[in-house]
């Protein structure tokens, strides 16, 4: 029987996986992207906070709790720049990189979870193999697509980040 914390953890993990996939595949900067992004951030917060409350595996604070903190830091590092539009010339790049790594980390955790559920599979090799595959694939895809996404959306993002009374508006006026 699952506890309420475990149920919230599983539900938020599934919602995070779906919302993250949608955000990655939908056009960037749209209202749909933003709304789904908020769902992703909210569900990731619940996922990581519930992860910090689960001690069934080891009975004490362990490596998965550390990874939950890493995930929270990555999530904040991806969300705050887009929320604050700071730093002015790098917020979009920070948002893209950290949110991508947030989702890659989520996929790594999901793959690890599935790998250790295979009957007879050794625990730590399952965690490592599942994590490594998504780390490598995610890194490859991020390197492959990052410049194209920044070029496509970067100029609009940089212009949005300049205050109305900033140097760009003075140069135009």
Structure explained in plain terms:
With 173 residues, the protein is mostly helical. It has one domain (4-165). Helices cover 79% and strands 0% of the residues. The protein has 6 helices and no strands. The chain has helices spanning 4-25, 31-51, 63-84, 91-116, 123-161, 167-172. Helix 2 packs antiparallel against helix 3 and helix 4 runs antiparallel to helix 5. It is globular. The termini are far apart. Mean pLDDT is 85; it is low at 155-173.
| Fraction of residues in β-strands | under 5%
Q: Give the ordered list of helices and strands.
A: HHHHHH
**Multimeric status of the protein:** single chain
Secondary structure: helix percent: over 70%
- Count of distinct structural domains: 1
Largest sheet: none
Count of helix runs: 6
The residue-averaged pLDDT reads 85
**Total beta strands:** 0
Report how far apart the termini are. Answer: 66 Å
